Amino acid sequence: MTKQLIISKYCKIIDNMIFVNGKLVFSLKKNIQFSTFVKAAYRYNNMTYPKFFKMDNLSKLGLITAEFLSDEFKTKNVLGEEIGIILSNSTSSLDTDNNYQKTISNNSDYFPSPSLFVYTLPNIVTGEICIKHKILGESVFFVSKSFDAGYIHTLVSDLILNQGIKIVLAGWVEYLDNEYVSSLCIVKNISEKAEITKEIINFTIENLKKIITG
Amino acid sequence: MKNAYFIADNIISSLGFNTAENIAAIEKQISGITLIYNVQLSAQSFYGSQVNSERLKNEFQKHADPNEFTRFEQFCIISISDALKNSKIDITNRNTLLILSTTKGNIELLNENRLPEISRERVFLWKTAEEIQNYFKLKNTPLVLSNACISGVVAIITAARLIEREKYKNVIVCGADILTKFVISGFQSFLALSSLPCKPFDKNRNGLNLGEGCGTVILSSEPNQCPVNNIVYCGGSISNDASHISGPSRTGEGLYLAMKKTAEQSRKKLKDEIGFISVHGTATPFNDEMEAIAFKKMGYSQIPLVGLKGYFGHTLGAAGVIETIAAMHSLKRGILHATVGFENSGVSVPINVISKTTEKEINSCLKVASGFGGCNAAAIFAKI
Lengths: 214, 384
Prior knowledge:
The complex is a heterodimer.
Chain A: E1 5-14, E2 17-20, E3 23-27, H1 34-44, H2 57-67, E4 83-89, H3 94-102, H4 114-117, H5 124-133, E5 139-143, H6 149-162, E6 167-176, E7 179-189, E8 201-202, H7 205-213
Parallel strand pairs in A: 4-5, 4-6
Antiparallel strand pairs in A: 1-2, 1-7, 1-8, 2-3, 6-7
Helix pairs in contact in A: 1-2, 2-5
Chain B: E1 5-12, H1 19-27, E2 33-36, E3 46-49, H2 53-61, H3 71-85, E4 96-101, H4 125-136, E5 143-145, H5 151-164, E6 170-177, H6 181-189, E7 210-211, E8 213-220, E9 231-240, H7 253-266, E10 276-278, H8 285-297, E11 304-306, H9 309-312, H10 319-333, E12 335-336, E13 352-353, E14 358-359, E15 364-371, E16 375-383
């Protein structure tokens, strides 16, 4: 059976603006702090997920972005083990690494905490998204200088064509020193698409690059 | 679809600077874990596995100026160089890719007193990889993978898939992590470190030991010229527990899922039952119990288990690569390694842990790993 992979939905969060499929759906003024913005985005989604407030900023950012795409996970006949995640960024978990470093750099003021240390891994954001949406399939985190559409395209295609995965959440999620950008998309076989719309975005390297970095 | 063969390797650890030295020590059941007193790493002494710094300097001088590279980069450069020496691949070709697997890379650079002459930009993992790429004059940008404690196994799975799909002819997988105050203090804050050398699967186990090291394995679509004892990748899978970010699932469901998919995928290439399992076996109470439950679910209770954390400690991003290399040499040499530290089973279901070095003809191995973020990975490889 030949498969036609498409990008069925995408969401980008930058400068306190949230775009879904390229359309602005929510925004606050650019000078508002990320912590305030992300809380407002949480309320906008009518979320009741107290765990959210314990997360580091990278995880909050990734989780909120995934929330705008989460209807795509609820496709009929797709199991949790058939959903995968491939995320990347350029600074890994450096924002939390810096915060954690402050807790151990001074012997007279030494207070490392496990709840902070656990977020010093970039794949914790993938773990948090998996927990929220009961995603049991493959999840991987890569680090690259800029979004590498070629590698990500190869790996996402392989998951769907050869590894028994039907839906992949893929893209870029980065947070460092109050600077952030998150840009994620859903890739699936065209037959998994819930509704027939006029526009079909084929999953090509060019389209992936345009959607994630454009 | 092409086959992915394991054609050359290297291990750097407290037990030696090449695979042969490491395997010889393991076969003699010599552990690399010692009591470490070093205030740069920890205010209190701790049991861990540390690479000899004097020898590191001497070995690295053969390659470049030790003042221009971090400890992490020195591990990678020596290890990759040694693995390449044992293979005939052309690394300047576009057909060759490097995958770097690490949890924290050059994280020691966050401490402003460490290595003041090294650019702080090298704390970015892609920049670290770029230094290694430049040293070897590799054509392709390396792929950098950071997936907690499963990074090494995921790197091998990714490498094998890229070769099977004919994206590359050769993939060099290098997994490394170093001992740092950053990581040691974090595991101490979790109360996850054992006060003694670790005891995987034992009833008296009380935590893990951290280690540092580097493993490099080269995968290729072209097998080695020798007709016997080539090792081929049969299948692999990754899963998530979706239950907790800092503890394994109590049911072992995630690891079970990864093993189940791996077994299905490997069916074509695997002639008989799995010969042994190279476990993750960190020796924390929860990890080992979870693994044992997952093995039982798979019907693997009788399969011999080998755990190597008692030799190297937990080397994080290197662990999956180092342990896979050791397992491949078990297959090649017909010797099962002892799980040093194990005496009496301390898990709730039956298991078959190898407790002393055993000669046995075996054809295949299942490698598993689990880590923070709820992630699990499994891969099967076999002798052909």
